[in-house]
Amino acid sequence: MEYVFASLILHYAKKPITEENIRKILSAADIDVDEVRVKALVATLNEVNIDEVIKSAAVPAMSMPTTVQQQPPPEEKKKEEEKKEEEKKEEKEEESMEGLAALFG
Q: What would the CATH number be for the domain defined by 2-57?
């Protein structure tokens, strides 16, 4: 990846993408240079119009969907709380009925 970055830096600076220039950038970043990779990259990029590739790969900025959940209005919160309380009451009634059934069962 660093080899591609080096070539993009050279392209941005409007410098020729040569083996020597790639080596200089990688050496300046204290990266061990693999000569085979440098030669392959330079040979490949000689056949590529980098500006066209960048334009075709560029994605227009879009608004990112937010994953934040909206809080329900206070009225809905109250209704939800009332439902929970009713459910608890029903559970308690069922438990007490079960207890009575065991006594008279």
A: 1.10.10.1410
Answer yes or no: are the C-beta atoms of 2 and 30 closer than 8 Å. no
27 touches 33 (CB < 8 A)? yes
> How far is Cα 21 from Cα 24, in angstroms, rounded to an integer?
5
Q: To the nearest whole number, what is the mean pLDDT of the chain? A: 80
* Cβ atoms of residues 19 and 42 within 8 Å: yes
Instruction: Give the percent of the chain with pLDDT over 70.
Output: 71
Q: Residue 6: exposed, middle, or buried by beta-carbon count in 10 A (0-12, 13-18, 19+)?
A: buried
Q: Which are the contacts of 95, defined by CB distance < 8 A and separation ≥ 6?
A: none
- Boundaries of every domain in the chain: 2-57, 76-105
23 and 29 Cβ atoms separated by less than 8 Å: no
